[in-house]
Structures are given as C-alpha cells and as structure tokens.
Design a protein that fits this description.
The protein is an alpha+beta fold. It is built from 18 helices and eleven strands. The strands form three sheets. It has a six-stranded mixed β-sheet with strand order 7-6-10-9-8-11. A three-stranded mixed β-sheet has the order 1-3-2.
Length: 479
Amino acid sequence: MKESARLGAQIRALRRQQGLTQVKMADRLAISASYLNLIEHGRRPLSAELLIKLAQTFNVDLKAFGGEDEDRLLADLLEVCGDPIFDPHALTPDDLRNLAAHAPAAARAMVGLYRAFQGSKESARSLAERVSEGADLREGFDIYRLPSEEVTDLVQRHRNYFGELEEGAERIRTDARLEGEDLFQGLARYLQAAFGVTVRIEKVGAMRRAVRRFDPERRELLLSEVLRRGSRNFQLAYQVSMLTHKDAIERLGNDSTLLTTPDSRALARVVLANYCAAAVLMPYEPFLRAAREERYDIEILGHRFRTSFEQVCHRLTTLRRPNLEGVPFHLVRVDVAGNISKRFSASGVRIARFSGACPRWILHSAFLTPGMFRRQVSRMPDGTLFFCISRTVEKESAGFHGPHAAHAIEMGCPIEHARELVYSDGVDLGNSTAAVPVGMTCRLCERMDCEQRVFPPLQTPMRVDENVRGISFYAPVLD
C-alpha cells in the first residue's frame, strides 16, 4: 500500500504538470476516470502494463517512477529542516516523508526556497563587505546562485551515466585511430586533420594563469607546460569532445527543469565534455574489465590508462551501463576547510548539500597523512554499512609562487561490494561493531555520544547545565 501511495502521488503530480483532468488523462490511457482516481489515492496498484503505457503516452522515463528521486528529495528536506529557523515549527521526519511522497512539487519548491534563502544571505553578506570596503554599488547586484549544485542534480538524475556520450567517445577513438598509439600525438593529429586545430605547448607566463586556451578564430589550442602527461591528454580529449559532440553536449546541458541560469548551463557543458573526455581516455568496457581484474586498484588503473588519480576516481563512478555495471561508488571531494566541491552517490549514502559533512568521515583525516590511503567501515544512523577509502590529491603547480591546492577524495561502496576492492584486504568486514558511526550532518544525526558534535539534533533541544560538563554540550550525562 505504501508503494501504491507513492506511485499514485507521482501520477497525480504528472497529471497536474501536464494540465490534465482525471477524465482527460484516463481517456488517453484508455481506463476509467474512477479507476485513475483510485490509483492516484493509492487504493489500486499500478500494473506494469499501465506503467509502460503511461511512460510512452507522456514521454516519461520509467526511472522517474523509481523511489530514488523521492529518497533524494526526502534527504534534501531533512537537511533543509535541520536549519534552526525551522525549530519553532516542530516538523517531524514523518511530516517531511509525507510531503515528499504526496506533494513532491511542494517539497521541491520548499527546497528551492531554502536555496534562494541561503543565496540571499550570501548576497547580503557580500553586499555588507562591499559597503564596508567603500565599493561602488551602482552596478547591478544579483542574487547569489550555485550553478555547481544545479549541475550536480543533473548528474545525479542521470546516475552519472550518459550513454550518448559513451558512444560518441568510442567513435572518437575509432576515427582518431587511438588504439595502440601515443594518446597525445593521436589526439593532436586528429584535431589538426578533422578541425584544422593546431596544438602547442606554451610557457606558464604566456598562458596568463590558464592551463588550456582555445582560440576558435585562429584554430589554435594552447596547453600549459605545467600539465603532466595525463592532464595534457585529458585537455586534448576535452577539446575534441567539445568539437565533435557539440550538439549532444548542448542538448544534454540544456535541461531547463534543473539548470536555471546561463552559468549553470555553461558549467553543465564543461562537465559533460569532461565526461566524454574521460570516456575517450578510459573506454568503458576495457576500463571496466581492467578495474575488475585489478580489483579497482586506482593507482594501477591510472598507470595503465595514463590518467590521474582523480580522473580514475571519477571514471569509476560512471560505470553504470545497464547490465554491465561496476561497483556502485559514491565520491566526495573536500578542501582543507571541509568545503565539499564535488559529490555524487551511486552507493546510496546521503551527502550533505547545504552544510558540512560529518567530521567522522574518513576523508577529513586524509589530510593528516598526505598521499597515503586511509580506510574505514562506516555505519550510518540507519545501520547500513559502507566501506570507504580516502586519499589526498594535489593539483599541478605553476612554480614556487603558484598556488598549491590540496584536496581529499573519498570513494565508498556498500559493504557487500567491499571484497571486490583491493583496499579491503586485511580489514575485518564481518565485525560490524568495529564500524565507525558516522552521519550526514549533526542536525540529522541522533547519536548523542559524539564528542565532535557541533549542533543539537533536529528533534532534541539544547540543554546546558552550567554545573556538569559532558563530552560535548549536547551529550547527556548520567544522573
């Protein structure tokens, strides 16, 4: 009945989105309006035959009727309502679960409003800084937006798998005759032959802090001398992808339901071209076969396909081809301040969107041992277990005076896939009591025995006794 109610709510939302009455939708589906009414209210199950007809009639992807979107929406709602501004309303998880299931459009609107609220706060903060500095405020001052969040939603909706770009990458490899040839020379030759583009390695000073510059008028691609071999290959593959599959990248990156600003759409095109470039350098089936043979050893895969550590990590999250899938990974990248700059989850773990990640996640401690792998079995508040690895990565530096950026990357998968990874060797995966209890954010985690808690849980008010000190201000003590 719960599943019927969820599907019924989704169909009702679809009908309203299409601007149809129950009578008109029922007519197009060749069923009675009364039967459709029962389905929408969860009193009749939705048959597979009717579901397929619904998808075909209204051009809807069947994946849209899965529970993943609802689960992600619920996670966003829970995180949003973890903000103290909602405390007076005493919203419970059941309230939010019902909202996500029965009124998803309203739930998305609520998340969107909160995002706008956060943007307005950021804009006000920036405006105050400009005023204090005596800046000229006569220029327009736009509401702060986060294109990266919108693009992340696009990637998550597609499960980080774009079949059209995978096929396009295979055509590039065939047309450029890359098999068994030096990738840099092969891609450079293909750019010259197919598009009349000349590739040149340029000195740091002439690049003016850029690592890649393409001049469409002069048909010239400049690459910085600071790029290592794998990064040079990637930048070449990126430019080839942009030129050969411009239409597909434009179409996929023009999703008006998710990408609301020109900056979001521009960033989406970059991300999609990066995806295609990775598929050129690490073709799907050979890469998946190598990953399985080497038990997902990231460093060996990097050597074999001449790509960087981070590029391999990204590629591993894209192995979602139906009937030919790899291990379902999540990926998170943070800087030394804990800011999440990249995130994707195929493992099922929930990653914070509006606030920092749990300090118990292994990726934070990776900065203590730069360049070394750290491993962790993580137990989420609902009891699910994940096997996670983390390591720091550094970007190419433009010399002594150039910036030296360091990040930590975490890769993780459900515990049942851990044995497929070389990194699980020697780890007692069967001892669940040794798992590290982690959460999504403090506001959504009910564990009160955490010495690193910085906020009280959503439904537990803060109580401070000036005469007793526990492991934190929020942890109860025994009487």
